[in-house]
Amino acid sequence: MGARGAQFIAAPFLSSLEAVSWQRAPSRGGAGGEIFWSAGWPFQARERTLTQHNPSDTSFAAIFSRRRLVLILTAWTLWGLLWSMEAFAQSHLAGREELALTTTLAMQMPLAYLWAALTPGILWLGRRFPPFGGRGWPLHAATHLLVMAVVIFGTGAFYAWTVDLARGAQAGQRPFMLRVTLNFLLWVLSDGLLYWLVLVADWAVEHSRRARERLMRASQLEVQLAQARLQALQMQLHPHFLFNALHTIGTLVRTGQHAVAVRVVAGLGDLLRRVLDGATTAEVPLKQELDFIHGYLEIERVRFRERLHFTIEADPETLDAAVPQLVLQPLVENAIRHGVAPRERGGRLIVGARRSADQLCLLVRDDGAGLGGQLSDGVGIANTRQRLQQLYGPPPAHSFEVVSAPDGGVEARITIPFRLASAEWQREE
Fold first, then answer.
1. What pTM, to 2 d.p., does this model score?
2. What pLDDT tens digit does each residue of the chain (429 aa) get?
3. At 143, is the secondary structure helix, strand, or coil?
4. Which residues are registered as beta bridge partners of 365?
5. CA angle at 199 for the pair 193 and 203, rounded to the nearest 5°
6. H or E segment at 120?
7. Rounded Cα–Cα distance for residues 132 and 122 (Å)
8. Largest CA distance in the chain
9. CA neighbor of 213 nearest in space, from 39, 60, 73, 34
10. Whole-angstrom Cα distance, residue 323 to residue 416?
11. Measured between alpha carbons, how far is 161 from 176 in angstroms, rounded to an integer?
């Protein structure tokens, strides 16, 4: 076996390991469980990967999976066929003894399958005693050098024996042990390189897998952190909204409007149910958000009576679009506080939604006195700005502005990418 044999076997062996690393294999838990190593699976499957897969796993399932064994056997079979053909060609071109193809196959294929049988053991030793870095690597490397020598000597003896079987006893043939020793001396470099190529291939695949898992874990943590921030911002709105509703109810009770107070409590209960149902959801269909705003404005109209008028206008094609939950409520609340409440005759609000190409445009407008100076971000405006940033990234991925309307009043405009809400929400509606 020469250096070309080592070069030939390294490439398919490495590719076979790469193929295995992106497939699924039986888990350590036994039958029925699977570890998914592909980065395209949902978070739950990837979490199982991170918790169950050990990059230095030396278990039977990790080393001797059926797919891996088939790939190893295939690689060594191709190697054996290549060397059988080369030995056949050399015997005819060298002008010496011409060997039949069946003879060269009988000489080379058993050796190839012996290496195939030894490869899982080499992989196991490579993981049990890693020679590349880590604690104790010099001792591990020395262990592999010793094992390598034993393997090369053993394969040399096996090859001499199979040659005797394939060709029969030859006149003037050297003693068996002398031939084994000569094979060892001739093959120690080429077969030693082959032994270390097997180790390096497995180490490279495992190193790449660990890097992918670290990247996967980091991306999961980043997503979870973003979700936590969104939920914190979302929950920031709940006490503010609830305080205003309870203030309205308290006013009704103190003025003896018990029937109206009961109706407002019922409406508030419905709004709170909607909020709690989507407490962990970042986006909801626009139709659901507009239903919530309608219920909220009905409660506010109890406070302001005939002083509050509102219109909700949304193009039908926008109703299934995904929008951040409670994205309109703080804008409507600001419009009521600054555009309606200060005026004795009240005012009118317009809540609108339309689609422009691949963008969804949301609008909240009042007919009050306008900004009258520089805008100061309160809790609602700052909260909305941060949530849009978390969900869609920095502008121009989205836009949010609060400006004076051309015909008086204030407009709050939001532009976000248009996409349909999840099927689960659409089914619920």
1. 0.48
2. 444 444 444 444 444 433 333 333 333 333 333 333 333 333 333 333 333 444 445 555 556 677 778 888 888 888 888 878 887 887 777 666 667 778 788 878 888 888 888 888 888 888 888 888 777 788 888 888 898 888 888 888 888 887 777 766 665 677 878 888 887 888 788 888 888 888 888 888 878 888 888 888 777 767 655 665 555 555 555 566 677 778 878 888 888 888 888 888 888 888 777 776 766 677 889 999 999 899 889 888 888 888 999 999 999 999 999 998 888 988 998 898 888 988 888 899 999 999 999 999 999 999 988 887 656 667 778 878 888 888 888 889 999 999 988 888 999 999 999 999 875 544 444
3. helix
4. 350, 411
5. 135
6. helix 101-128
7. 14
8. 123
9. 39
10. 8
11. 8
The 3-state secondary structure of 91-113, one letter per residue: HHHCCCCCCCHHHHHHHHHHHHH
Please state, in angstroms and rounded to a whole number, the distance separating the CA atoms of residues 120 and 323.
54
In the block, residue with structure tokens 């911002």: 233
Separation CA 335–CA 79 (nearest Å)? 77
Distance CA 388, CA 398 (A): 7
HSE-up of 338 (CA within 13 Å, CB side)?
24
Q: Is 205 helix (H, G, I), strand (E, B) or coil?
A: helix
- Alpha-carbon distance 94 to 2, whole Å? 17
SS3 of residue 353 by DSSP = strand
Nearest-angstrom CA–CA distance, 73 and 64 = 12
* Owner of token pair 């230095």: 56
Domain boundaries, the chain: 3-220, 281-428
Alpha carbon distance 81, 75 (integer Å) = 10
The CA-based angle 46-48-53, given to 5 degrees, is: 100
SS3 13: helix
Q: Which residue from 197, 200, 194, 201 is spatially nearest to 14, judged by alpha carbons?
A: 201
CATH topology for 281-428 is Heat Shock Protein 90 (3.30.565)
Cα-only R_g, the chain: 37
The answer, yes or no, to whether the previous bond of 120 is cis (omega within 30 of 0) is no
Q: Which amino acid is at 191?
A: D
Closest CA to 122 of 53, 202, 188, 59: 202
Query: Smallest Cα–Cα separation from 100: which of 172, 167, 168?
Result: 167
How many CB atoms lie under 10 A from the CB of residue 246? Answer: 13
